[in-house]
Amino acid sequence: MSSYSLSDLQSAATDVIRILKGLPQFAEQKIAVIGGMALWMYLPRGRSTEDVDFIVTLDGPKSIKPTLLSLKGGPFVEHSQWFYYRSPAGKLIQIDFAPYFPSAAQKIKDIPEGTIPIISPEDLVLSKIFSCGLRGEHSKKQRDAVDAVALLEALTKSVPSLQLSEAKREIAKQGLADVISVTDKNEAWWRSKLGLPKSPSTSPSRVVQSTSSASRGGGSGQRGNSRGSPSQGPSRRYY
Predict the structure, then answer these.
(1) CA-CA distance, 10 to 33, in Å (whole number)?
(2) In this structure, are residues 9 and 3 in contact, taking their beta carbons and an 8 Å threshold?
(3) Hey, which CATH number is domain 6-110, 3.30.70, 1.10.8, 3.30.460, 3.80.10?
(4) From what superkingdom does this record's organism come (predicted)?
(5) Are 3 and 90 in contact (CB under 8 A)?
């Protein structure tokens, strides 16, 4: 159970954006909230969190934290390499900035007072799938994958699957092996929910061909991997 309420985190996010808006050098940077706070807002009965994760345009993270820490009398502190916002009530809320650029991100100068740009549900699913493959700890990989499952189940209650662009489908396909490995959902489930085509490795013709090859002693024939595998193309990117 989080020691912070969603309202605490929303207040922190709003204040961080307000402070950034007062710094001209960040006016053109785009920003949005992702991670556990975004998930909490979309799934109020899901898991809670104790930090606020922002995404900013690629050149932002390296410069934002040092600038905020240098503000005289500012509410930002750093402990053991973690970056925190100190609320008016004295609560330390962890804040993080990551280089990612979803469609929901808005230029800091254009964000209306008191509002928080939140990553879209579809992009949040992709970010969870993407993050799962980057985690070193099994528990964190599993948490990202379970979050993606919960969000996908909520988003597909009234529609059969997500409607993703081709670029986003590629991101999803590259992360399938990672999320499949740490959840009880098989490849067919993930492909169905994400609106991806069925895997050719599970088509009847491939299965028959593989079986007949085995019966002829052709043990060298390749069989499809039921879990799929990450793309061997360029490193994963967000769009």
Answers:
(1) 10
(2) no
(3) 3.30.460
(4) Eukaryota
(5) no
